[in-house]
Amino acid sequence: MEKLTEAQIEKHLENVEGWDYYDDAIHTTFEFDNFMDCFSVMTRIAMEAEKMEHHPDWHNVYATLEISLSTHDVNGLTEKDFKLAAAIEHIVGDE
Amino acid sequence: MEKLTEAQIEKHLENVEGWDYYDDAIHTTFEFDNFMDCFSVMTRIAMEAEKMEHHPDWHNVYATLEISLSTHDVNGLTEKDFKLAAAIEHIVGDE
Q1: Are the C-beta atoms of A38 and A62 separated by less than 8 Å?
Q2: Domain covering A6-94: architecture
Q3: What are B23-70's pLDDT values in tens digits?
Q4: Contact at CB, B62 and A50, closer than 8 angstroms
Q5: How far, in Å, CA of A64 to CA of A30, rounded?
Q6: What distance in Å separates residue B57's CA from the closest CA in chain A?
Q7: Scanning every residue of chain B, which has its alpha carbon at the shortest distance from the alpha carbon of A69?
């Protein structure tokens, strides 16, 4: 997996609304109605991440879920991060 | 639920080895072999937390799980936090 250039990152960001790019990673925050809804989504994301062999850096407090994605091997972003971000958006959109 | 005094907190800490007390919360970190093992434990903790109606502040990256417990309503610690900490230790000990 190759590290994406700034231009490539800009292009990818157009497809994942609500994600911000800083500190060599992409970040987003979701708010759910309660912990159960939040953790249900986390479970679906966990399965997807495990299948992709690419895992999130995430922080949960009750119904709030903060997610950061990056690829440690390249110390930046790769296609994998945007693939996982798109999968997360799909999962959250389903709820 | 009443806010615990410093003396009560010291006493409770004796029963949950590996937890540190600072910033009005108790904290610990677990390292697992991989993401699947880590998330399996998170799932068991989530169920227990939901049953207790008391939820963790937690951060996961791959096989590392950082947990902080506190009771927002009292802006400090209550029996609930130590009850959840003990449940978490029990779950992790089972793995």
Answers
A1: yes
A2: 2-Layer Sandwich (3.30)
A3: 999 999 999 999 999 999 999 999 999 999 999 999 999 999 999 999
A4: no
A5: 6
A6: 5
A7: B61
Spell out the domain ranges in chain B. Answer: 6-94
Give A39-66 pLDDT, tens digit per residue: 999 999 999 999 999 999 999 999 999 9
Q: CB–CB of A30/A92 below 8 Å?
A: yes
Helices (H), B1-95: 6-13, 35-52, 79-94
Tokens 């159960």 correspond to A36
A35 touches chain B (CB under 8 A): yes
Please say whether the beta carbons of A23 and B21 come within 8 A: no
CB distance B36–A59 less than 8 Å?
A: no
